[in-house]
Amino acid sequence: MGVCHPYLLWGRKRSYAHWKGQVLNSQEFHELYEGLKISSVNKYDYLLTGYTRDKSFLAMVVDIVRELKQQNPRLVYVCDPVMGDKWNGEGSMYVPQDLLPVYREKVVPVADIITPNQFEAELLSGRKIHSEEEALEVMDMLHCMGPDTVVITSSDLPSPQGSDYLIALGRKPDGSTVTQRIRMEMRKVDAVFVGTGDLFAAMLLAWTHKHPDNLKVACEKTVSAMQHVLQRTIRCAKGTCPGPLPFLPVGAPCLEEGRREGLYILEFGVP
Questions:
Q1: Which range of residues forms the domain containing residue 79?
Q2: Residue 128 sits in a domain of what CATH number?
Q3: GO MF annotations for this entry (predicted)?
Q4: Catalytic sites, residue numbers
């Protein structure tokens, strides 16, 4: 989800201090999928992918997506093209550079929803973004590459609300002559988080399932849920967490609280 930097709403893929385990390679991934096929548990409605460092693994994801879509043409593939981010205004990749052409030429064309940050959108389109107008043009380009829905999850564009806000953008045709284009302005949080990009992509998948024809509502509920998770995480880190919460559906009260905490979502009906 965006930049992993103090004072921003969320971060992305700055390394944990320590980790253990093995990285699944493409052959192991193939064997795992073949096992699912043998057991007839390879029929899905949704598929979500995120961080990977191996281009052969990524290419195999594409083959599996195509096979799954042959079985179920209605399958929705959500791709978070995790490649890099901007640090102090400078972009850098934290995966091997040979993944970029695979994403651009193979992965994005088969994806239904993509969630790049600004730097990743620039990499995929080959164009820099200096303004909201340029961001919308880049999103148009990415849409023409294949995905039905494009969400730039974070950017360094200036917000009309001021420097304390972070801008994200979304684009989705509604099936007629109008394209849904939205701008999300979210208050920055004085903290650094790890794993929020995964949470955002998963929440967006869930809410686009609930609201397949309304990107504005899906994004509003996604960001509202993100705000709640991050604020609660901060409270727990400070030792002020009130304890387990009862299960409550995300609805109008949550959205109202999200607005009070600094969530603004505007919709542009652009022919």
A1: 46-270
A2: 3.40.1190.20
A3: ATP binding; pyridoxal kinase activity
A4: 198
